Amino acid sequence: MTVILRAEVYDIATEIFAALVDGEAGALAPWPDGAPMGVHDVAAWVDVHGPWPGRASIETSADTAAALARALLRLGPGASVTADDLIDALGEVANVVAGNVKALLPELGTLGLPRVGPGLPAYGADALQRVPLEWRGRSLVLTVWTTNDEGTAGGAARPDRWEDR
What is the pTM of this model? Predict the structure, then answer.
């Protein structure tokens, strides 16, 4: 059984946000214990195929996803974010997370395409690591999912495009 530690997922997240989103370390932290997480009505995910079938996902609110898109695309604080901007930005974060998770695996695999929707589709897997995070006072959750049944991976019960909801 492949073990991916919570600390590894957290380290991946902090490195990605420092490099791609914020340009410096420090804007991402563990979510405070006991605090409410809020509504997570947007999700992005990338499936990992191969000897270790799994998924990496990020869930957050639409407002946080828009703020994340502004930061990633280097738009101003009041700039309008299109559905395509949101899909591209959140999908890119999920893709980089999945690529880093794949790098932790002992055997090679491949990544599926990033998908973004109003929630995570049914997957038939268990959350291996669920890491609640605070980014600029906003909540988001990174989850690494695992399954031993390749056939259950990737089945989308919900639209995989944000604008299809």
Answer: 0.84
